[in-house]
Each structure stands twice: as structure tokens, then as C-alpha cells.
Amino acid sequence: MSATISPLAGKPAPAALLVDVSRLRDAYVDLRPDPSVASQRVAFGTSGHRGSSFERSFNEWHVLAITQAICEYRQGKGIDGPIFIGIDSHALSQPAFESALEVLAANGVQTMIAKGGEFTPTPAISQAILTANRDRSTGLADGIVITPSHNPPDSGGFKYNPPNGGPADTDVTGWIQRRANELLENQLRGVHRVPFSQALHASTTHEHDFIDAYVRDLGNVIDFDVVRGSGVHLGVDPLGGAGVHYWAPIAERYKIDLTVVSDEVDPTFRFMSVDWDGKIRMDPSSSYAMQRLIELRDRYDVAFACDTDHDRHGIVTRSSGLLLPNHYLAVMVDYLYQHRPQWRADAAVGKTLVSSALIDRVAKRLGRRLHEVPVGFKWFVEGLFDGSLGFGGEESAGASFLRRDGGVWSTDKDGIAAALMSAEITGRTGRDPGERYAQLTAELGRPVSERVDAPANAQQKARLSKLSPEQVTSTELAGEKIVSVLDRAPANGASIGGIKVVSESGWFAARPSGTEDIYKIYAESFKDEAHLQQLLQEAQGMVDAALGAA
């Protein structure tokens, strides 16, 4: 079991790989989903509904139905404040925005759209919701983010954030999904809609300056005095994403030495290097996709990139190149809890089950409680909202943390703040995150890890998600006694949608992706590479058995 690396991986995207944007947008309108086909129904995964118009999984009817369902959900819950809506730079995001606004206006929803038609990062939506709702108990705001995250250029995505500012929990998305599919089955009867030009000029549609609001507030999260005073030289590659026009205002407002490597926006993302599987994917944690910034590592003290909706980060240092997401999460935890004295003394460290066990060791040394949850940032929302979590991070390079004073900042992933934290760390400590990681592992043990992705269809993913501890009959894992077998998270007892097997110096976890037709096996060893490969081999046997089961 090993994913096949494409011969195109890490190379410039060839013309043959580029999406035909006109065809994609035509398909959005012209192709209608068949709700009797499972793959064409509305389905909220770990982060909203996603799909491609070519495959009839993200089309106009999906967006109209989902938006109407959100309007009805809001009405049923008494959410009558404004809804903040933003889009990323994927080709399907603009037409989806137009469809959504047509429904919002027809339903009389007060809607806040980006000033000047700007792109809007996910964390800017969360920040706007939380700011609007501060000290309020009525007239609460919520939000919509139209993005498929880092997924390929032919993808579209649609997320709903309730008044707590974070990704909606399954009870919310489940209701919206059911109602949206009912509307699809009824040929959109019950969907209210007005023409886009009318919606754009409706009395309920208002512009909001997301850039100014977010950038102005960012100084309450990052210590820019330290960054500016240290003179640290920074580089950023927005990867053509929603935050492309945020970085220059950040540099200007806070007078930091930050160079924007590229401000190019192109819905084909032709400037990207190809990811591991031969697809264009704006994943800042992938060394294949991040070739442009990695090649520039010697020009900057530290450099960073974000994915298309800027909720994920990638950190490139002179000392070690591109950091693995888990490495940087551990560095952030170690730094933040020592340099945020106004945070609650009992603020826990949030991590997903497939994040590095080095974070466990860092938390233990800091004397902080570990809050270990399933994959999905929604599990951190409540803790970040009330301050009982100082930090929440997941293995796929998503994280958020509190304001410097301990108040809530963003309850959704914030790639911008996480990226800029690398500048604060470097400026204050005189060591970049790669050097900080080397010091951590010298003190707490050096893990080696690997994540393997491989194709899996819906039926295979369903079988994998139902693995149970009872199916693990072995008492040993890679030569060591098994300490625990988990199918539920220690922090909240929620299902992890797979299984995690732990020994004294290693672990593996297997779970299907919530957003793509792949499955993922994670493994980590605190011994050596040979032990890691043994972990992966034993994980392979279990996954192969699950996928091969009748």
C-alpha cells in the first residue's frame, strides 16, 4: 500500500492539465443533478458540500437548494441578523455566489458581501461573525463561505458557519442537507429567487470591507511589535487564493518586512506545480505543490503560503525547508503557551487524533490538558469560543488560537494568523520554526511519520469508517504491546470515523477522507524509519482487509 507518485509531481502544470473554465461554468448552469444518484445529492462532509459541475455534484441547483435550506434553518432558529458571505478564487465560486445571493435576497435576508467584489478568506468570515455578535444575544449574524478549500480547480464548495463563527456541527449540516435534498427532489419547488442584478441592488444587500476589518484586528492576535523590531525578512505566496489582496495591507499597516512573491490570480491555477497524484491542488503542506516557495527559501528568514480560502498554512524556513504540518503545530503550541500570559491558566491544547504525539509530549511538559478530538475543525469551535482551548490544530495544516488577551479570535481555521505566527516566533526567539522544532525533538524525542493517500470509492470509504476495536485481534503493534485501540475520541467520545492503534512508541490511524475519494493512513514512530515502515505495513493489512470485505 503506497500511493503512486505521478511523474508530473512537483513540475509546472502542463497545458493539458488545465481546466476549461468556460465549459466548467457552462456545466454549472446546464447540468442538473439527479437526486436519485447518491453522488449527485447534497452531502456535507467534514467541511461543507463539495463537488464538480462536470460530475453534477456542484451545480446551480445544489447551491440554490442549499441556500434556501439555510434561509429556512435561520428562520427556524431565530437567527435574524446579517449573513456574511465570501468567496475564494476557484472558477465555480463566483457563479455560486450569484446563485446564493439570488436566494438570500428573495428571502429578505440581510446579506453582507465583500466590498468591491473582493475574494474573502474563511477566517475573515469567522472574524466578521464573531465581531458582529460580540455582547449580543439577539440579532445574531452567521456566514457562508463559498470554497472547496485546496481542492483542484474544477471543484466548488459551500460551507455554512453559524453564529459561533466556526464550521457548522453535524446537527446543523444534517438538517440543511436533508432539506436541500428535499428541494432537489421537488425540482426546486419552494426555492425563492430573484435575478442577480436585482439581488445585488436589493435593500437587504450591503457591502462590508472584510480586508480592513480583518487586517485592523489582526494586531490583537499577532505581536507585530516583535516582528517589526526584529527586522525579520518574510515572504508569502498566496497561491492565487482568497487572501491575495490581504498581505500588502498587512505589511503596510504593521510596517513589517513582507514580500508578496506573487499576486497572480488565475482560475486554472496554471502557476502551480503539480501535486503528488498528478492533479493541481493548492495545498500549502505539500512539497510538490509548494515548489515555487521552496525554491525561494534562501531569500527569506521565513516564508509561508496559504491555500485557496486561506484557512491552511505552509511554513518554509531556511533551516529545514517546508515544515510538515505536525512539526509546526508542535512548535506553535510550545511557543504560544509560554508567551500568552493573559490566556486562562487552564486553557487546554486542542489536537486531532491523527496529529503528532509530539504535541501530547509538549502539552504534558507545559502542564496543559490535552483535548484530543476526531478530524474536523468543528470539534474545536466551542473551546475556542469560550477560551477553554487556547489552541486548536489539525494535521492537515489548519489551526487557530486565541487573541493575545485570551478572547476569541477565529473559531474557524486561520492560515493567515498561523503563517504570521512563524514570523513572531522567529523574531522573538531568534530561531525559525525549523530550528525550534529541532530543539523540541532533541528534548522530547524525534518522531518520524508518514501519511499515505490512496483512491477509494464511496463504498470502500464507508467500510473503512466502520472499523471497530473488536476487529483488532493482535495484542502487539510493530513489536510492542498495544496500549489502546480507539474508534472514539478521548476528549468527547465522538466517533473518529476509522480506527487508531497506539503502542508505547508509535501509532497508526486509518480513516476515509471527508472531502475527496481517497483514504488516508497515518503512522508515527518515535523509534526510527524501519519501525515506521513496520507500522505502515501492519496498517496496510487492516485497511486492505476492510476494503476487501464483502
Q: What would your notes on this structure say?
A:
With 550 residues, this protein is α/β, with parallel strands linked by helices. Helices cover 34% and strands 21% of the residues. The protein has 17 helices and 22 strands. The strands form four sheets. It has a seven-stranded mixed β-sheet, with helices on both faces. Helix 11 (325-336) runs parallel beside helix 12 (357-366).
Q: Describe the largest sheet.
A: 7 strands, mixed
Beta-strand percent range: 15-25%
**Can you count the beta strands?**
22
Rounded mean pLDDT score: 95
Uncertain residue ranges = none
Instruction: Tell me the Rg in angstroms.
Output: 22 Å
The shape is: globular
Q: How many distinct helices? A: 17
Our measurement of the CA-to-CA distance between the termini, rounded to an integer number of angstroms, reads 20 Å
Order the strands across the largest sheet as they lie in space.
1-2-6-5-3-4-7
DSSP helix fraction = 25-40%
